[in-house]
Design goal:
InterPro entries: DoxX (IPR032808). It is found in: Membrane. It is a single chain. By secondary structure, this protein is mostly helical. The protein has one domain. The chain has helices spanning about 10-30, 30-35, 40-50, 55-65, 70-90, 90-110, 115-130, 140-145. The two termini are about 20 Å apart.
Length: about 150
């Protein structure tokens, strides 16, 4: 593949790093004090209670609602780990699949909020492209360590 400035693999690495920065920004912009004291999950409870799909309400009530503090930490630090993993290219395929799953969860939970959906769909699309283009081939610790050859 012939491209301007960078090789195809390098452009995919740019996408990977950009996606990592996007996840890092998702973590950075959270008000941690409010988030970890129930603000983030409390907001999601209100969304889940009004959700149009019963399976989403039931799944949220079973998994997230009984553990608001634990889930707040899981969500926040998952976003941080995804961001760092993608930026540095460490365990990249795992980070891409994890990010795709998290985006799909956000997408389903926020199905009625179209402003939020654009971000989740775009991040999911980038994850799929980088995953299938094997975006860990250049500019990554995975490549330097010989992982996922």
């Amino acid at each position: 593949m012939q491209t301007m400035w960078l090789s195809g693999a390098e452009w995919v690495a740019v996408l990977r790093i950009g996606l990592g920065l996007w996840w890092l920004e998702s973590w950075r912009h959270k008000d941690k004090k409010t988030w970890f004291t129930g603000g983030g999950i409390g907001w999601a409870v209100g969304i889940a209670e009004k959700h149009r799909w019963q399976f989403v309400r039931a799944g949220f009530d079973l998994t997230v609602k009984p553990r608001p503090q634990v889930m707040a930490y899981v969500v926040a630090y998952a976003e941080l780990a995804l961001g760092l993993g993608l930026i540095f290219g460490l365990l990249t395929p795992i980070a891409l699949v994890g990010g795709l799953v998290l985006n799909l969860i956000y997408f389903v939970l926020m199905i009625h909020d179209w402003a939020e959906q654009g971000q989740n769909l775009m991040m999911a699309l980038i994850s799929v492209v980088v995953l299938f283009a094997m975006g860990w081939q250049v500019w990554s610790l995975d490549d330097a360590l010989g992982l996922f050859q």
